[in-house]
Amino acid sequence: MSQSRSTAEDVARRAGVAQSTVSRVFSNSSRISEATRQKVLQAARELAYRPNNFARSLVTKQSLLVGIVMERISTAFSPYVLEKLTLKLQESGYNVLLFNVSQALSADDLLPSALDYQVDALITTSSVVSPEMADVYAKFKTPLILFNRRINNQTVNTVSADDYHGGKMAAEAMIKAGVKRAAFISGPENTSTTQDRGQGFFEGWELQDFARPRQIVGDYSYQSGFDVACQLWDDDSTLDGIFAVSDLMAVGAIDALRHKLGLRVPEDVQVIGFDDIPGAARLAYQLTTIRIDVDLMVNKTVELLQRCLTDKTKEVEQIVTPVTYVERKSLVVKI
After folding, report:
1. Does a structural domain hold residue 70?
2. Does residue 36 sit in the same domain as residue 121?
């Protein structure tokens, strides 16, 4: 016969404390002294006790489960964000349920499923969330937070980088580096990152008496950066600069320039990216880029989530975090 599962009452008896004290320890209450906390945890280890989160959720009306809806997980930026975001949520006492948006689905297709799992909140990095779906989450009083995305809907919380300013910084850096005929490799045109970075870039470029940069659409992937760079040079071999809306497309473009088109970076063509993914600093690329502070964005997101769960009636927040210019060797500003 299998041994019955230990209960909170068993732990309380072993530790010599009240059962409510055991509950506070496992809910990470700050009202417990460290000595008492360690005594309860030791008793729990000896009894192989684990709290029944399902039962607790029925009482507290909180599942401590946060859904994450993410697309393009195979790109370099998404797993980088996912690792930091899940670790921060786990440190804060939440478990994570991941929904992967495929090409055949949209975020709107998956968002209802998250409600079926009784998530306390949902964080999405998806390109588009419809106003209708945002209203559904508002009706159910389930906080919805867009990460690294912006939406013109006052029922949705957002945490994004200052993409507009970053795009403008990219234009200014290219102009100071001596670029005169530039191209802009964008992501899908329905994404706020493409729209805001592009707007900043073109407005920054219009301050100079040069030809307006050509825009060509990629999909944030390495291969699209490689392919569209080849297409650009098939159409205009006089280009001397590229701004890619993501680092992964920028390194794809660099490989195309060097290994397909026989050009030198930065001597013949200067390249700047956006994000500052971990691979951007590799010796093979030494990519000049606009850095997003992912750690700051993750911290702001979890803090916002906690505020939303504490006060379901709070006003929507739209947080914008600063970006910085990082110069390496793919584009060098002339002094």
Report:
1. yes
2. no
Q: Is 210 within the bounds of a domain?
A: yes
CB-side neighbour CA atoms (13 Å) of 233: 19
C-alpha R_g of the chain: 25
pLDDT of residue 58 exceeding 50, the answer is: no
User: Residues 232-243: pLDDT tens digits?
Assistant: 999 888 999 999
Kind of pairing between the strands at 241-244 and 144-147: unpaired
pLDDT digit string (tens) for 165-185? 999 999 999 999 999 999 999
Establish if 335 belongs to a structural domain: no
Are 284 and 238 part of one and the same domain? yes
- What is the secondary structure of 184-242 as a DSSP string? EEE--TTSHHHHHHHHHHHHHHTTSSSPPPEEEE--SSHHHHHHHHHHHHHH-TT--EE
What is the C-alpha separation between 332 and 330, in angstroms, rounded?
7
**Residue 34 sits in the same domain as residue 71:** no
Say yes or no: 44 and 89 in one domain.
no
Q: What are the backbone dihedrals phi and psi of residue 29, each rounded to the nearest 5 degrees, phi first? A: -70, 140
Tell whether pTM > 0.90. Answer: no
Q: Residue 24 is part of a domain; what is its CATH number?
A: 1.10.260.40
